[in-house]
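Support reply, case 0932

Customer input (verbatim):
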Amino acid sequence: MAGLGPRVVVAGTHSGVGKTTIATGLMAALRRRGTRVAAAKVGPDFIDPGYHALATGRAARNLDAWICGEHRIAPLAAKAAHGADVLVVEGVMGLFDGAAEPGNPASTAHVARLLDAPVLLVVDASAMSGSVAALAHGFATFDPSVRVAGIVLNRVGSPAHEAMLRDALAPLEVPVLGALARADELAWRDRHLGLVPVVEQREAVQAAVDRLAVEVAASCDLDTIVRVARSAPRVAAGDPPAARPTAAARVAVAGGPAFSFTYPDNLELLEEAGAELVPFDPRYDAALPDDVDAVYAGGGFPEVFVEELASNRPLLTDLHERVEDGLVAWAECGGLLWLSRSLDGHALCGALAADGRMSDRLTLGYRTARVDCDTPVTPAGAQLRGHEFHYSVLDPPGDALEMSGRNGPTRAGYASPRLLASYLHLHLAADPRMAERFVTTAASMRS
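Our regenerated output:
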């Protein structure tokens, strides 16, 4: 049974305070000192873990109590931290913001409690002085079961501003462990869903991470932060979710910059179930990899690369024909659009009789779903928990899944015994039997 060692959660007072800047910079700074750093992200986000992986040199994990369940969080964190000296967990939104589901808010505070981890609170101090003490006091005392062990001030205007902030916070029992100056070079380049994925601009992001490491090392008390992480009690975490080897199958996995939204745990669980994963880049490869039994296309930003995807007619034709012939396919969000007839007028695969278009309306949130028929991932009637975030619309949307969210029930998605294509992002650690079923279904196509 694995255990959880030194760990700290980097949280914020609200979205946009600079959690990713501080967390990524802290990871990179500690690594430059020779510390073996592991990373995890609260919630379903795909982009932040890419920055964490670049900073730490190892895969980052998602800790989502709503999708995977409370009982999975400590084992997944222990899996992330295996072989590391310290685990740095970046939170989501504000410290106490989450799914707003009674008993399972899936907030940063919720995950910190499940991990019994101290919290480093990031405060955007750009527009305050003495009020910072009231803000910090409120967060530190709101929930006694969450231990706010230190504060990092971000976007500080000047040395005089920093002195005022520190003076205001001095009476509190929570120490200031860092203060970063406001600087344009520390701002991340945004896109409509947040940070741009690392795979799209790796060299530029690496340079930014290197700058962050230097700035955080100079502006934060790394020794005390490490002591805070070591103050977390060692707890038994249990074994991480695992899939049973069920069959042998070759699975083509869409990758490259257009399809970078795939959880590492999903790929590992597929391999545990017996899959040989064969990556390919839908922008350039002229055909699916040889002798594959299934294709898995996760999410990403296909709209950014739609001209390249649409111009690769040989692959699109091969994919269409093979799906029509019964190739097992699982597509999520961006993969769903790729399988459709078109996106914003650019002809794509056409395996689905639907057309996609980008819109200015964000669809975002947790979803439960019930599948009406057998699919390669789930049997008919299975209940799923996943997440949607996209600015695209599919017409017609499909009706294979009965989806429920904060805005009420809807129907969407396409499914058959050999196909599951929807906007829903699934985390296989919630139920490794989904990985087993996908591999078994793929292998059955060989017979």
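We compared this against your earlier run and they match. Two observations from our side: The chain has a mean pLDDT of 93. The radius of gyration is 22 Å. Please reopen the case if you see a mismatch on your end.
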